[in-house]
Design brief:
single chain, 255 residues, alpha/beta, Metallo-beta-lactamase, Chain A, 7-stranded mixed sheet, 14 strands, binds zinc ion
Length: 255
């Protein structure tokens, strides 16, 4: 299984400029932020499944453009996996004919280019031997992180999140969890803002993951533009032996 980072920024205008989208092999996306715009049309057409962590614009903006771009170029719909509530939110507020067409009825309701698939916490979705399991996380809106892979090799992508002890309790004894991609959006001076907006700051993240094995590599994403160095310095000085590294657009990992 190959993982490629198409976008991992916490906003535009900083060192990283594309928002959250991760590609697994050629056919699966985790989130559909502006990062997917770096794919060409042949690559876009190969995307069969999109798993959304939540409905915030920086994670779904590219979804609307993706289904438009591949219309007429695929024999089957793009399947978008999310929670029941988040699917309802996207139908009501985005794919409503006012903000964007309802691509679940285009070109017709029997053979649409987009189909919604609701997922449940803790129930794996299996796609060609790859298991993708949603775990609830705390954020400003309903959100999940995804555990991806199999018992031989897997990674966790948290999506946007604030303190969620139950997630780390579930993860700490999992064999073969070698990498965690985790939000750390704000420096410690903005801990109150991080809390109210449902993101980690360095202090809260280090505290939350203190029982995770030291062999698990932590890759930080969603850094706020202009504050990347400060956040990473604060993580490093708080780390207590653990290594944190900033995720970069274009990074690739094999599992
Ligand atoms: Zn968010
Ligand atoms: Zn976000």
């Amino acid at each position: 299984m190959k993982l490629r980072i198409l976008g991992c920024a916490g906003g535009i205008g900083g060192r990283e400029r594309l928002t959250t989208s991760l590609r697994i092999d050629d056919d699966i996306l985790l989130d559909a932020g502006t990062g997917l715009a770096s794919l060409d049309i042949d690559q876009l057409v190969k995307i069969d499944h999109v798993f959304l962590t939540h409905t915030h614009l920086d994670h779904v903006a590219g979804l609307a453009l993706l289904v438009d771009a591949v219309m007429g170029k695929r024999a089957t719909p793009v399947t978008v996996h999310s929670t029941v509530n988040n699917i309802a939110t996207l139908k009501r507020h985005v794919f409503n004919w006012a903000v964007w067409p309802d691509f679940a009825t285009i070109p017709d309701a029997e053979n649409p280019i987009l189909q919604w698939e609701s997922l449940e916490h803790g129930v794996p979705v299996e796609l060609g031997g790859r298991l993708i399991t949603a775990h609830p996380v705390h954020h400003a809106v309903e959100a999940v992180g995804y555990l991806v892979g199999d018992p031989q090799a897997r990674f966790l992508f948290t999506g946007d999140m604030a303190t969620t002890p139950e997630l780390w309790r579930a993860m700490k004894n999992l064999p073969s969890l070698t990498k965690v991609i985790v939000d750390c959006s704000f420096p410690n001076a903005e801990a109150a803002l991080a809390e109210v907006s449902g993101h980690y700051c360095p202090q809260a993240l280090v505290e939350d993951v203190r029982d995770m094995p030291e062999s698990t590599e932590f890759l930080i994403y969603h850094l706020k533009p202009g504050q990347e160095d400060m956040i990473m310095q604060e993580l490093t000085s708080n780390a207590g032996g653990r290594t944190f590294r900033a995720l970069k657009c274009g990074d690739q990992f094999d599992f």
